[in-house]
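Usage

Read records sequentially. Each one opens with the input sequence:
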Amino acid sequence: MDSAEFVIEPYEYMEYKYHLEKGASMIFSWNASEVVTHDFHDEPDADSVKGVKSFDKRDAQSANGGFTAPFTGIHGWYWENKGTHRVTVKVKSAGFYSTAIEFGMNGKRTLRDVKSPN
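and closes with the structure output:
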């Protein structure tokens, strides 16, 4: 299980993804304080450049659903704040992932702990 909250300044972006093995699934929901441009996509471990595939790319303030990984790799969101106000994004998920990874504007990758269900 995992939950996270991010602040995205005007004209900035961030990404948050989970590492799942092929066939692993998760459920999720996220909401933002303002409309953001988002892209739910994945990148296979084998070829993170050519293998990127988008599943849901649009402007929205929230989304929820379930996802089953078509291959082993990282799967998650890109959120971009194209507005002039600071935006807070909150995401919650549960699933069969091993790691959460935060990608910031500065190119830094931060591994985050995920909780095992009790």
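Summary fields computed downstream for this record:
- Residues 2-112 form a domain with the Jelly Rolls fold (CATH 2.60.120.680).
- DSSP finds no helices and eight strands in the chain.
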